[in-house]
Amino acid sequence: MCVWMDRVECLYLLYMRLIFNYLLIWSLIGLSVPDAARSSMVVFVHTARARLRLTLLSRVRNTLHFLLQFGVFQGYGSTTTGKLASHGFASMAAMSSFPPQRYHYFLVLDFEATCDKPQIHPQEIIEFPILKLNGRTMEIESTFHMYVQPVVHPQLTPFCTELTGIIQAMVDGQPSLQQVLERVDEWMAKEGLLDPSVKSIFVTCGDWDLKVMLPGQCQYLGLPVADYFKQWINLKKAYSFAMGSWPKNGLLDMNKGLNLQHIGRPHSGIDDCKNIANIMKTLAHRGFIFKQTSKPF
């Protein structure tokens, strides 16, 4: 195995074996493993398994792509195509690109909100972008993008404009959050995302957008939060599972770790969404399967 795997994966496997031996010895002598040690071991094992899986899938796909170039699969006919289609792939070429995901669509979201130093309260959403990402091709199929009129602090601070690039004229006269949420629901229906047979989930860079910002502002305004906003994938957690390191600087670290160019302006909601989508596509191409990270409300 070590002949075709690089040293990193070999070390991961050896260290995993040491971990399991450690657990076995402690259990045999009747001692309990300290909670802190058990927790760190579990995290390491999950990370090691994810990294190993990504390596294996990447090499399988590279091999498959190489064979496709030489027509190895020509003549397999409709049987092969049918089997691939049953797994969500339109062709052999699709199989060499992405593994099947658990969701039909990923809804990439990144709010921008009123802000200042020191922070103002309550914060209010001023940019509300969503990208509809096809779960099979990882391509953007549709975009929802609106600016929102803040009510409590209607005048944007210089700090906020410098950070987000949003000027006062971009929010003046725009719909309220309640009106924007109604339009989100209309867009979701138009895109077929409210169909019970269609599996979709929101994706954010962190938990702040859907765990703190939206429910907090809705509570302040006395607005209900739609059920589809109550489950999501935190891209930072997904990235850490796939790459084995936590992106302290968010999108900047993830782009750097994947050798990707940053798209657009940092802290522009719509540009941040494009970066999230690009990172997801890259991780999916390496074999990563995205899973819900939020806990049920």
Automatic annotation (TrEMBL):
Where would I find the Exonuclease domain in this sequence? 105-289
Tell me the Pfam families matching this sequence: RNase_T
Q: Which cofactor does it need?
A: Mg(2+)
Q: Which InterPro entries does the record cross-reference, listed alphabetically?
A: 3-5_Exoribonuclease, ERI-1_3'hExo-like, Ribonucl_H, RNaseH-like_sf, RNaseH_sf
Gene Ontology molecular function terms on file: 3'-5'-RNA exonuclease activity; metal ion binding; nucleic acid binding
Q: Which residues cross the membrane?
A: 12-33
Q: Which residues form a coiled coil?
A: none
Alphabetical UniProt keywords: Exonuclease, Hydrolase, Magnesium, Membrane, Metal-binding, Nuclease, Transmembrane, Transmembrane helix
The protein's assembly and partners: Interacts with PRNP.
**What's the protein name?**
ERI1 exoribonuclease 3
